[in-house]
Amino acid sequence: MVVRIFGVSVLVTIGSLIAAFVYDSWQGVALCAILGILEVSLSFDNAVINATVLERMSEFWQKIFLTVGVLIAVFGMRLIFPLVIVWVTAGLNPVRAFDLALNPPANGAERFPDGSRSYETILTDAHPQIAAFGGMFLFMLFLNFILAERDTVWLAWFEKPLARLGKLDQLAVIIAGGSLVLMAEFLAEDKDRSTVLVAGILGLITYIAVDGLGSLFHTEQFEESADGGPSKLVKATGKAAFFLFLYLEVLDASFSFDGVIGAFAITADPIIIALGLGFIGAMFVRSITVYLVRAGTLSEYRYLEHGAHWAIGALAVILFVSVRFHINEVVTGLIGVFFIGAAFLTSVLANKRDDGDSDAATGSRVTQPATAD
């Protein structure tokens, strides 16, 4: 199963590294590999969240996510998205923006001799709006998870009180909206305040719209298993699966914002970014997602989903803070790894504790054979 799931990603990685060598010799190979590792390390929590959605989709739509979804991730978010940002914020058409990206100023300068901004500088200047949009979308995802009552809780001392507070209607929107106002007031520069507010509101609206459409067409129908055993959830198809797919793509876009912006600390070359973040990073993230679904990892390690959502909450806060302050990508990646790792370890300990309790209960029911009179 591992070979089948990760085999394509390995082949794509080899092809990408060869393309990077042809394009920019060994320097291109090194940059491409670094970006691929960066994307995977930043997006492991993305893979866990994707898996919780993907397991609700039919096999056909899972394949769509791995084919069409990859094309959107590679070309849409890692190549076209930065060009669109330059187009919108600098008034340059995508062709001119692409030419600007391929021909940066000499010696890594922020501006050309005529005073015009470089491709990297334009994208960096647009970071507050990007962070506000992506941060609000991810923050809403975190709040809707943490404010809901669940049979399984991880940090019970904190999650249970939050779940009780979550009974207040639209509390997630209230918290997110209040956080946006505070971010715009205390973190955004005066010149960016209005655009940060608009971008944050758009992120909030996007989450509500996409999540709402998914809920509208998703009905939890159950069917009896072939052996007459417990019923299982019918996989989403049709419109329900389409909106789940749409939700996954917006979610992936929100996760990729920090990776795309962070990539410019390594290189501004759009070809290398597309090869490293897109073909290598995005493919492996999707393979990890499918592996989690096929192997049943989410059900086996009960707290993994919780850890991923806490990592999302941390990432959302980091995006908010990055509106004013630069946060090193290593910090972002390590926080995600910390929450996922902690959730995994506590899941393992909980499973061992349950096995021990089960063995003890079984032993207590063992009776001595009756003696003859």
Please describe the biggest sheet, giving its number of strands, its sense, and whether it closes into a barrel: 2 strands, antiparallel
Total E-strand runs: 2
N-to-C span: 59 Å
Mean pLDDT across every amino acid position? 80
* Widest β-sheet, arrangement of strands: 1-2
Percent of residues in beta strands? under 5%
Structure notes:
With 373 residues, the chain is mainly alpha-helical. It contains 13 helices and two strands; from the N terminus they run ααααααααββααααα. It has helices at 2-54, 59-90, 94-102, 119-125, 127-146, 156-165, 171-186, 193-217, 238-263, 270-294, 297-300, 304-321, 329-365; strands at 222-223, 232-233. Strands 1-2 form a two-stranded antiparallel ribbon. The longest helix is centred in the first third of the chain and has 53 residues, at 2-54. Mean pLDDT is 80; it is low at 219-233.
Please describe the topology of this protein.
Layout: H1 2-54, H2 59-90, H3 94-102, H4 119-125, H5 127-146, H6 156-165, H7 171-186, H8 193-217, E1 222-223, E2 232-233, H9 238-263, H10 270-294, H11 297-300, H12 304-321, H13 329-365
Antiparallel strand pairs: 1-2
Helix pairs in contact: 1-9, 1-10, 1-12, 1-13, 2-3, 2-9, 2-10, 5-7, 5-8, 5-9, 5-12, 7-8, 8-9, 12-13
